Amino acid sequence: MPSTSEQTTPANSPVTVPGQVVLVLQGGGALGAYQAGVYQALHEAGIEPHWVIGTSIGAINGAIIAGNPPERRLERLREFWDSVAQRTLAAPGLLPAFENWIRDLLIVTRGIPSFFSPSDSVWKGLHAEVGTDGASFYSTAPLRDTLRKLVDFDYLNARATRLTVGTVNVGSGRMRYFTNRDADMRVEHVMASAAFPPGFPSVRVDGEAYWDGGIYSNTPLEAVLDDNPRRDSVIFSVQLWPSSGPEPVSIQQAMGRQRDIQYSSRAESHLERQRQIHRLRHVIRELSAHLPDDERAQSEVKALMAWGCGTTMHVVELDAPLFDGDDINKDIDFSLSGIGRRWSAGYTDTQHAIARAPWDEPLDPMEGIAVHRTGAAHRSGEAPAA
Fold first, then answer.
1. Sign of the Cα pseudo-torsion (279, 282, 288, 290, in order)
2. What are the pLDDT digits (tens) for 38-68?
3. E runs forming strands in 103-188
4. Which of 62, 164, 182, 287 is in the most buried spot, having the most CB atoms within 10 Å?
């Protein structure tokens, strides 16, 4: 992680961003250190989110951000990632593949003291009926204690910053978003969003069992695009899994590529659908302007006109990089070096995005949604797509 001696307070001249600032955080285990770097760059530029939406590790990072006042957020993020960083996973000088194997073995067998620990249920066998709440390889009781320490739930429920976390109901299989806008949130809501099976157990909220929302939708972008009432927004969508990549040439590469595709963003399909809907809303608004005043005053017409809007949304996609040595288990690379390089990449990529300020670019009034990609583009020297 970047040194604590680095700048940790907002700039003297904060960057001006039109509309509400939304931070959308994907799930991805240790890859979530990239999100912490993204937040650091935003914080230093004076860009604080009005709304954080996350699932899995994104829900944990999101709760730490929304559950603390701005001046404490970065400190708390550092504290979390420092607590999960593994410093003695392998002896220096070993082959990278062997180092990765030792790293994975130690985490799988020992867990991470501040995050998860092996469950006693494992010793009873895979077919033992241990109950819904115990059907997992690990216990996340340590995470409960960590979240209670790092998240001020009284502050969170004062609603200074909106938080939304994605979960899946174990019984119905339906996606459900919990948000502090509608009701107070507890540690269980965040725990449920990070309950990825079968590694972690389900978490009960009001008597219902929930799993990690990432098994249904790992990038909860639709939560903001479908929000009502709609507001002009700049959405920083942080992608941890690459949707595109080279064709695999080995079984292990095939397994890794399969995971990338499975957990990568569905943002493109969501955005295409939203573009169509948003265009219709703008058409309705334009058509309503041509109606006579007496027609516009009728209650039935007012109800139809309410379907129209003129909101604009800038989606800034931040794509985490692939590093040399990444393998199928890169999402459990909680090594100090792995966390540090992902944090630094998120920080640098976001600085590039802020410097570019794509939200200042003109937007087609009939479209209403613009997508600006950064991260992989500037690293390769290509011009970012808009």
1. negative
2. 999 999 999 999 999 999 999 999 999 999 9
3. 117-118, 138-139, 162-169, 175-179
4. 62
